């Protein structure tokens, strides 16, 4: 498995927003959707603001592959589902810490529907 480099982790984690473009069933990339990204150790995570109602999220779950861009880094990724409740608790804290100034938007990102849509980004 490929790992993120320290530079990639730092640059993506420092970016306020990430563009995510999951692959469709025909192999083409969806138009990028701008979302938030947080770091936990050597891993990067995203969630769907709309939970499983997010179109980008449904495509990512179906294909498990796509491309992300943030902080000057563009990388093909695998979207891995994250079921560990301890990770979700840490991610909630990361969302509050990084995006707390957007309090109206953080609350849905740490609510049950968004938590259930947590995906780990694995570089390909």
UniProtKB/TrEMBL annotation:
Superkingdom of this protein's organism: Bacteria
UniProt-listed InterPro entries: Split_barrel_FMN-bd, UCP028498
Protein name: DUF2255 family protein
Organism lineage string: Bacteria, Bacillati, Actinomycetota, Actinomycetes, Streptosporangiales
């Amino acid at each position: 498995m490929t790992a993120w480099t320290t530079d990639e982790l730092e640059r993506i984690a420092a970016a306020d927003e990430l563009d995510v473009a999951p692959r469709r069933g025909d192999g083409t990339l969806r138009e990028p959707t701008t979302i938030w990204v947080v770091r936990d150790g050597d891993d990067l995570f995203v969630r769907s603001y709309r939970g499983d109602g997010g179109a980008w999220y449904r495509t990512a779950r179906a294909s498990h592959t796509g491309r992300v861009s943030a902080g000057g880094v563009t990388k093909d990724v695998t979207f891995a589902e994250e079921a560990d409740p301890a990770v979700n608790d840490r991610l909630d804290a990361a969302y509050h810490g990084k995006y707390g100034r957007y309090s109206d938007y953080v609350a849905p990102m740490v609510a049950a529907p968004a938590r259930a849509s947590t995906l780990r980004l694995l570089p390909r």
